[in-house]
Amino acid sequence: MEKTTRTETSAYACPGEAMHSQVPTVKETTATRTTWKVMVAIDDSGESFNALKWAIDNLLRRNYPSAATAADEIPAAMVTLVNVQPTFGPIIYPPGPNPVELTPMMVEAVKKSQEHNASEVLSRALQICRENKVRAETLILEGDAKDRICEAAEEMHVDLLVVGSRGLGKIKRAFLGSVSDYCAHHVHCPILIVKPPSKEPNL
Question: pTM, whole model, 2 decimals?
Fold first, then answer.
């Protein structure tokens, strides 16, 4: 069963200038202003945090440079930090002649651990947004990351999805798959894929 947990914990709003031509514009008048919605996929990898920082430095801070306003005003931009945890239920593990069935207590312990890890990861990402005066909210989902990210982006009508690329070589990408590649082909909004810092290609 898919699970969704959503909380808004940052009180910063950054009004500012109109975005560049390739992204939706933001009107200057508060009464008519709409919020530019950016979703950033976050996990415990350095690549996802690199993507968040790149988006803040090159999109949000550059286009919304003015100081934060009161929390009750309509923000010019809102970042949704989304983390997806895999579905975990009673299973037989490992496959083979002597499998062990996980008890409900064991499953519950794993789920609590997942929730704790998700909260820690999102807290780190939220702190980065606070330090840069970017208004943000957190969203925890359960299921397959590729599908759930695309579904959430569509349901929330986001204007831009930001994901980090792990820089997998062609062979690893063929076997392991890629969340960024999948989202690029299935999400219905513009997507920004941030590559990791340059290094030797992985095969």
Answer: 0.72
